[in-house]
Amino acid sequence: MIDKIRDVKAKTVLDHSSADSLSDKFFIFESYGKDTEGPTRAIATDYPVRLDIMIAVVCQEGSLSTNVGYSNYVIRKNDFIIIHPQKVFQVMEVSDDFKSKVICLKPGFFDFSSDQYNFNVKNMLREYLCYSLPPSKMELFSVLFRYMEDVIGDKNNIYRKQMVYNYLNILFCEVSNLLLIENENNKKNVPNPSEEIFRKFMRDIETNFQKERNVGFYAQKSHLTPKYFSTVIFKLTGKHAKEWIDEYTILEAKAMLKSTYVNIQQLSYELNFATPSHFGRYFKHHTGVSPRKYRND
Fold first, then answer.
1. Which residue from 88, 147, 213, 269 could staple onto 255, CB 3.0 to 4.6 Å apart?
2. Which residue range(s) make up the domain with 220?
3. pLDDT digits (tens, 9 = 90+) for 183-241
4. CA separation (Å) from 72 to 65, 89, 92, 152?
5. Looking at the domain assignment, is residue 235 inside a domain?
């Protein structure tokens, strides 16, 4: 169990997971619930964190609930979820019978191909994080995981990295094919304009929240008036646009407080608050505690 970790880097996760690894740039480990034989290994703390690695969790048994940014995801048997580097996430609940394979991959270790199809897949993986695998593909993935673990464990194999890279390429091609088929099927459905506006709003917040927390800015990016924009967001989600902006800002602040050593003064400036006291009042208003108390609890 990773507990009370401030600076959550790939090496920290590696040291706490007893993973099969080539280096801190690529490693695999198993994560269990309480009732599954083997050690219990959590892949996150009890608070929002941000890592410098990509995590892919493939559920073999049980279920796991996690928040990634604004969204909550529940993965069950044969599902997988991808959490991208620097994305804020929190594991909320793990079933007692949970069992999964977890792949951790640093950017640059395995580069996506640059052709148009793979570019589209990369974009889909960033926008839609959670997918289901047909049982036959799950069997294939299990075999590939086993091969990678065996190869990583063979210290005398001078081609270990090349072989792992090839297995990863097979995994990526299999996932690409599934996602492209799913994407073609989704194109047949008529998109909901309000949902498109909301999805764009979420992407815009993620990119601009440090500098812009005004609803008018985001309305303008969607070429809408602030009043109409706010009405669309509220009718679709039951929350006002300003609430979404504040929630994302607080989520980022929590992750920075818990998973980095950045002091509160520097953190407040990174989040574009005029002064540390302004940030402190904002944080306490939304959470009920001061930034310092949240960090130390």
1. 88
2. 193-296
3. 676 666 666 888 889 888 988 998 898 889 999 999 999 999 999 999 999 998 898 99
4. 7, 9, 9, 33
5. yes
